[in-house]
Design goal:
Elements (H helix, E strand, L loop, with lengths): L8 H15 L6 H8 L3 H8 L2 H27 L3 H16 L9 H7 L6 H27 L9 H20 L4 H13 L10
Helix pairs in contact: 1-2, 1-4, 4-7, 5-8, 5-9, 6-7, 7-8
């Protein structure tokens, strides 16, 4: 007779995701995971495997539910620089207010912790980086087509720089940086990319 689970695996995984996101994998013990999810060790191991497998599953869930949809929205927006501005505004709002304020980004947190040394984790991080960089490049290409982008702007290099700026927002917000400070930094960066206004004669 098949084993019947008397709990919702995705709900348990979401709680584990929040725990790893907030605290980092290195500091989270199995005891903490069982307390957070309400599962005993045998159910946890039978469903997800050990702590490493659980962390990977939680990171994949974060990518699927949070990171990838944001990249897809930006890539498909088509408005150019306003879309980039809106994406950063949403990011700052999420990082500085609401239920997850001060948690940063689970993916960027993995770069800062020892998790990135795991090749499977690193593969997830690299894939996300590519997706976000490509989304930024798509938005910049739309900006160029709309005449919003200054001639000197290199789309590929600038897309990479904007990804690094997003990482910085995530790290600084986790360290307690004020939302207004982050907004000014983003606004200054994006202003430098814009087509200068026509000179008055």
């Amino acid at each position: 007779m098949p084993d019947i689970k008397h709990f919702d695996p995705d709900a348990a995984l979401e709680r584990a995701e929040h725990l790893f996101w907030r605290l980092g994998a290195a500091t989270v013990s199995i005891q903490a995971v069982t307390a957070e999810t309400g599962l005993n060790r045998s159910s946890l191991y039978a469903t997800f495997g050990g702590k490493r497998q659980l962390y990977l599953a939680a990171l994949r869930r974060y990518v699927r539910e949070r990171a990838r949809p944001a990249c897809e929205r930006l890539a498909g927006d088509g408005r150019g620089l306003p879309a980039v501005q809106e994406a950063f505004d949403a990011l700052i709002d999420q990082r500085c207010s609401g239920a997850y304020a001060g948690w940063g980004c689970m993916l960027v947190n993995a770069y800062a912790g020892g998790e990135a040394e795991d090749p499977d984790v690193r593969a997830l991080l690299d894939d996300h980086h590519r997706r976000l960089r490509d989304a930024m490049a798509d938005a910049l290409a739309a900006a160029r087509a709309a005449g919003q982008l200054a001639r000197h702007v290199d789309i590929d290099a600038t897309a990479e720089a904007l990804v690094l700026l997003a990482y910085g927002v995530n790290l600084r917000s986790r360290a307690g940086a004020a939302a207004e400070t982050l907004r000014r930094t983003v606004a200054t960066t994006l202003a430098a990319l814009e087509t200068p206004p026509p000179r008055a004669d």
